[in-house]
Amino acid sequence: MNKLSICYILTFIVSILAITLIVSYTGKADSLENYHKVEIKEGDSLWSIADEFQKKTEISKQDFVKWVQEKNNIHSTLIKPGDLVVVPIEKTDLYHIEQIASE
Asked: Is the Cβ–Cβ distance between 79 and 46 less than 8 Å?
């Protein structure tokens, strides 16, 4: 093999490793452990929860409901009291909002 072929092979291997690291890093950044969980009460719906958190997030109510359905594997808008649902508000953001409100 000539030097040019070895350079192409090494470049390919380094590229594959870089892509693998990037994909694994972005997967951890989207961990649901970083998001606030809401316990569903009697009469709650995904839309009422979206209304409740509207001021704490910058996404539309429709996108909020879609995000909650996708991340929680909910296939309809029906939810049951007692269920825990992850919402698109990071725990740190919620903490800062509650801290400002209490001052």
From this structure: yes
For the chain, 103 residues long, the average pLDDT of each consecutive 10-residue run is 86 91 64 88 92 85 92 87 91 57 47
Q: Phi first, then psi: what are they for 49, rounded to 5°? A: -70, -40
Q: Which fold has domain 32-102?
A: Membrane-bound Lytic Murein Transglycosylase D; Chain A (3.10.350)
**Tokens, residue 65:** 């409901």
DSSP H or E run through 84: strand 84-90
Residue at token pair 């007692």: 82
- Give me the sign of the Cα torsion angle 66, 71, 72, 76: positive
Which of helix, strand or coil describes residue 69? helix
